[in-house]
Amino acid sequence: MLKSKIAGIGMYVPENIFTNEDMKQYMDTNDEWIQERTGIKERRYAHRTEETTTTMGVEAAKIAIKRAGTTAAEIDFIIFATLSPDYYFPGCGVLVQRAMQMNEIGALDIRNQCSGFVYALSVADQFIKTGMYKNILVIGSEKHSFGLDFSTRGRNISVIFGDGAGAVVLQPAQKDGQGILSTHLHSDGENAEMLAMYNPGTHANHWVNDKVADFNDAEIADMFMSKEMIDKGQNFPFMDGPAVFKKAIVKFPEVVVEALSQNGLTTADLNMLIPHQANLRISQFVQQKLGLQDHQVYNNIQKYGNTTAASIPIALCEAWEQGKIKEGDLVCLAAFGSGYTWGSVLVRW
Ligand code: UT7
């Protein structure tokens, strides 16, 4: 069967740097706490009105398409992973199709938060392997800064997240043994509310006894976003950090080993692990657990924070641009996050 390869990669981060010192203007926090607990020194924040999740994705996509030696007109499918779309619906995929004046190709949005890019790559890989598509654009992009709680109440989350985008173009591999070797996807919804943004959402119920109840518009609006929800901060992301951390440090190494062993390989064969940039302490724990050397793991959370669906393609792009990933290298991408969902992609570059 055909394999798919990453033929081109690009990234885009906003110019605006927001440091840990800048955070102190808004909440009770400090540089020492943030660096010690997360490794983050600064993150990028998009322009409030001129940059959106889609526009950042488009900038990353332009670079990926050029490096793949193709054009927007040749792209035959779009997959867009994000948890911070421009609109509640439609998704960002169609906005990319419009912005890049692409043909009337399919556009799919993926909602798997931190593991969104790994899921997106896996879906793209299936379409290439079956021969259905030959040039798939896969984007991970996030604009977190628009919806974070910048009061002290939200400090455990707000200091972590940053904005940015990464993109790849997937094409059929030409050389034997090159390309995506396997992908591994998992979920466990038991703790779905541990890392979530609850509102607005359809869990609010205006049906009574299987009939739409006679509520007026204001009452219905109140169910989706009431003053009480806003007062409690339920319009912002919620995270039980320690609970997520404990699960992440188990599932990350597990899913890397799963990918390697399915291919008859070991950690000694691995040239580069690109973990989703959730927390530097998580990456260091995973590195230690897997017995990897420093040169086998790439981290850039220090500069960008956690950019969820964008973190893997941004890190992959930087590592590749710095010459840390070369043809023939074995590269593992691994993610864990909200859902919980987690997964890995093993690539022979
Ligand atoms: O990307 C998707 C998946 N996400 C993750 O994998 C994130 C996993 N979790 C984490 O990375 C960590 O749990 C956090 C970085 C979110 C939090 O670090 P922690 O070491 O688990 O801290 P904590 O939440 O247990 O809080 C410890 C203390 C608390 O104070 P008390 O109760 O001990 O007095 C917090 O109120 O640190 C306080 N705290 C802060 N202090 C200063 C929480 N956030 C901050 C802050 N600045 N920004």
Write a short abstract of this structure.
This protein is α+β, with helices and mostly antiparallel strands and 349 residues long.
How is this fold's topology laid out?
Blueprint: E1 4-12, E2 17-19, H1 20-23, H2 31-38, E3 42-44, H3 53-67, E4 77-81, H4 92-99, E5 106-110, H5 116-129, E6 136-142, H6 155-158, E7 164-172, E8 179-187, E9 195-196, E10 207-208, E11 211-212, H7 217-224, H8 227-231, E12 238-239, H9 241-262, E13 272-275, H10 280-290, H11 301-304, H12 311-321, E14 330-337, E15 341-348
Parallel strand pairs: 4-5, 4-6, 13-14
Antiparallel strand pairs: 1-7, 2-3, 6-7, 8-15, 9-12, 10-11, 14-15
Helix pairs in contact: 3-4, 9-10
The structure holds oxa(dethia)-CoA (UT7).
Reported for the largest beta sheet, the result is: 5 strands, mixed
Overall, the morphology is globular
Task: List the total number of helices.
Answer: 12
Task: Return the CATH topology of the largest domain.
Answer: Peroxisomal Thiolase, Chain A, domain 1
> Roughly what fraction of the amino acids lie in strands?
15-25%
In percent, how helical is the residue content? 25-40%
| Uncertain runs | none
CATH-level-4 superfamily name of the largest domain: Thiolase/Chalcone synthase
Order of helices and strands: EEHHEHEHEHEHEEEEEHHEHEHHHEE
Number of strands: 15
Describe the structure.
- This protein has twelve helices and 15 strands.
- It has 349 residues and is an alpha+beta fold.
- α3 crosses α4 (92-99) and α9 packs parallel to α10 (280-290).
- It starts with a strand and ends with a strand.
- The chain has a five-stranded mixed beta sheet, with helices on both faces. It has a four-stranded mixed beta sheet with strand order 8-15-14-13, with helices on both faces. It has a two-stranded antiparallel sheet with strand order 2-3.
- It has helices at residues 20-23, 31-38, 53-67, 92-99, 116-129, 155-158, 217-224, 227-231, 241-262, 280-290, 301-304, 311-321, and strands at residues 4-12, 17-19, 42-44, 77-81, 106-110, 136-142, 164-172, 179-187, 195-196, 207-208, 211-212, 238-239, 272-275, 330-337, 341-348.
- The model has no long low-confidence stretch (mean pLDDT 95).
- It has three domains: 4-172, Peroxisomal Thiolase, Chain A, domain 1 (3-Layer(aba) Sandwich); 179-193 and 238-348, Thiolase/Chalcone synthase (Peroxisomal Thiolase, Chain A, domain 1, 3-Layer(aba) Sandwich); 204-231, no CATH class.
- The site of oxa(dethia)-CoA has 20 residues, from α2, α6 and α9.
